[in-house]
Give the backbone structure.
Amino acid sequence: MPVGAGDEVKQTNEIGMAIPLLESLDIAGKTITADALLTQRKIAQHVVERGAHYVFIAKDNQPTLIADIRLHFAERGEADFREPLNLEHGRLESRAIWTSTALNDDLDFPLTGQVVAIP
């Protein structure tokens, strides 16, 4: 929150404060990450207009976006990358990632460059 901000700014939630915070930073050439709460079209547009990239998490707060991504990855085939199976914290774990650029022009989200599924 900006120093000396008035009461109206103090009552603004995280979504409302994201762009003012980003405006105070030199983000050109940087990658901005955000959790699902900040996965907002206006914030994505702002980040790209400032010369940065974004990695946002899509969850149920963006129902159309997550539905499109889930549908695309429903029959995903072999992973683009998979860690070997290993013992972590007393259990066997394996991580995999699937990536796609097929939705770039079809998603209702600004300037998407790639979608990723990590189940």
